[in-house]
Amino acid sequence: MLFIAVSLTYSCKSTKSTSTGNSTVEKSIEKKLQQTWILENLNGKVLTQKDFSTFPTISIASSTFSGSTGCNAIKGNLLSKDAGLLQFLNITSETKKCDAKKEAEFLQLLRTTSGYSIENNKLFLTNQFGLTMSFKKG
């Protein structure tokens, strides 16, 4: 698991450095996405207090994000090449011992996110396999 996380970190850094000078493929994150979101649904299951001591959140800015796994603070960078496409890169997390049973699953799904949509004030994140998480406005 640690090897995968380190590999993803280095692969993300190497792809990020391939943008050339003034012409870059990165776009600013959509304004309607730039706010705080509270996790409601993880892998098709509605969250309960048994899953997390407090529900995870993500606060999205123009090229970065921060938040909480329900126990540990997280932060990282965002990449959006086109509308509806989104990646969470260089994710770092505190390492406090927690009772959040689904914390690792939440972090892994953030790392594999490739797309999003917003409907009825809800944020839906997807990866290559489909819908992974949904959030409500914070």
Automatic annotation (TrEMBL):
Can you give the residue ranges of the DUF306 domain? 32-135
Query: Superkingdom, according to UniProt?
Result: Bacteria
Gene3D superfamilies for this protein: 2.40.128.270
Task: Tell me which Pfam families the record gives.
Answer: META
Q: Which InterPro entries match?
A: DUF306_Meta_HslJ, HslJ-like_sf
Task: Specify the protein name.
Answer: META domain-containing protein
Query: Where does this protein come from, organism-wise?
Result: Flavobacterium hibernum
